[in-house]
Every structure is written in C-alpha cells, then in structure tokens.
Amino acid sequence: MIRPGPRNLITDVASLRVGHAQDAGIKTGTTVLVGDRPFVAAVHVMGGAPGTRETDLLAPDKTVQEADAFVLSGGSAFGLDAASGVADALRLQGRGFLVGDQTVPIVPGAILFDLLNGGDKTWSENPYKRLGATALANAGAHFALGTAGAGAGALVADLKGGLGSASAMWEGYTVGALVAVNALGRVTMGDSRHFWAAPYEMAGEFGALGPAPAFDPGAVPPIKGGEGRNTTIAIVATDAALTQAQATRMAIAAHDGMARAIWPSHTPMDGDLVFAAATGARDMADPIQTPLMLGHLAALCLARAIARGVHAATPAPGDVKPTWQARFG
Q1: Which domain holds residue 173?
Q2: Cα distance between residue 60 and residue 70, in whole Å
Q3: Does 255 fall in a domain?
Q4: What is the three-class DSSP state of 114?
Q5: From the CB of residue 264, how many other CB atoms can be counted at a distance below 10 Å?
Q6: Which bin fits 118, alpha (ψ -120 to 50), beta or left (φ > 0)?
Q7: Is the bond preceding residue 264 a cis peptide, omega within 30 degrees?
Q8: Could you give the number of structural domains in the chain?
Q9: Model's pTM, two decimal places?
C-alpha cells in the first residue's frame, strides 16, 4: 500500500531539511535542500535549455559520490550564485569534501528563468548569493508551498507556477519530491481547472477535482514561448541505500512524473532537470524490485508535487498571470 508521509513533503525522508528565501520586489527566490550529513547525489537532465552548477560531478564514474546540499533558484544564470552562498555557509560549519586541511562543500544547483515576470530586476548587485545563504539558514522540516523559494517568481503557460512537494511511503521506505514549476507548457487540461496529475492525487492534496471530463488530444498546446524563459527543476529523495548509479536511475524514472503533470514537457526551451538524493538509512530488501519501486514512487511524487505547487500559488502586486486559485478556485 502506497500512502503519503506524515507531512506530505520531501522532508518526510528523515534527516533532510528544506529552506526558502525570496524577494517580493524582484519576484524571485531560492530553495535549498540540505541533509544532516552528506547524501548520495545524482542528476538527470532532459530539457533542452538547462542552467546548472556541479552536475558533471554527479556522474557515477566521477570521484565524489555525495553532496552536502542541492540548490534550486530563480534568476536564470544569475541564480547560479545562490549555491555560492550556500557553499560559503556550509564551509563555515565545517561541512564539505575533505582535501588536505581544506573542506570543500559540494553544492550542485539548477536555475529557472524568471526575469520577465513583472518583478524589478534592476539590482546593482547580484542578490542570489545572499538568498542562498538565507535559505540555508531557514532550513527545517516544514516549509511553504506555492509562491515561495525558487517558485516565488515561477510561471507556466497560463498561470503562476510555484514550489511544490509530496511524499510517499511503501514497505518501510520513504520517497519525496521537491519542485519549482516554471514550465513552458500547462499543468491543467485544456481550458479546464483539472490538473494533468489528477489520476495520481492522494488525499485531495490539490483539490480532489479528478481528471477533466473530456480532452482533445489533437489540440495544439498553448505555451509561454520564448527561448530560455522556462524550466521545471526538481529533487527526488529517498531513505534507501542507493549507489550513485541507482540514484541516477531514480532521477531518470522521476522524469515520468514531470511528463504526466506538464503538457508538453522536456521541450527545447525548458531546462527540465531532476536531482536525486539517497540518505542510505535503509538497506534495499531486493536488488531488483526495490529500485524499480523507488523509481515509480519518485515519478508519482513528482507529478503530485507539480500540481501542488501551482495549486498553492498566491497572488502578489505586479503579477503578469493569475494564480490557479484566482482563476478556478
């Protein structure tokens, strides 16, 4: 039996914490996932326009197998600096990969494009390093969904995007997803209020509306348009003991959840990416069945998290698109 965790957040995976920081004037923000100790880390990219830091290091053949934190940020290329703020703060805590007498925090990150969302982008100094450090300082077991953190300035084709999370428990294992939804496409079906992810909803977590009663599969999907103005960036995590190669497979499987929840996804103008984290608290009971189910759960959680993020978005002055609640609630 699969069921949501007690918080229905990625922090149902024990020892993981999430923190946000946002700037309402700029309409942007940053989200950090950090563990009490380093976790096995992996990544898989399927979008055509990614913006990343330290992702090459996460290949299974590379020397470093673990990360200290993951960073999701708005700001396009400017937002990559958020990971620097996190790395600096972790270094002061003595966290990082030991090289001689030096510690080097391993902080992979990914960004989304939110520079054309109505916020004031006339900063004289890049704000993202500060936002990254603040998000790390705010990390805890509970955190906001919707217009928060890396989802603060996110948009989808016809609505405000947002920051979402969900979890699932099965046979003693926990899997969770965390996502900033800024997609080129739609998360709702046609002109209806029904989410593409509706078949996977648990416990009415995004309105219990069910699937749309009818949908034309031949319809041309409405999109935001614009090269590099998009991207859905996500993290999936588990308490299972995975190798980096197995964590990579979990990240690959999680992309199925993105495709179930966003229409279309993985386009040439999206930088769609999934990080994976494995804390190693539980040994795998079966070398075949357990990884298979963890990938399934990761996809399930990610689809639900995407809908939850958009469903929870809230309005703010200067918005260029309505929230789901304002349009359909």
Answers
A1: 10-210+218-328
A2: 17
A3: yes
A4: coil
A5: 14
A6: left
A7: yes
A8: 1
A9: 0.97
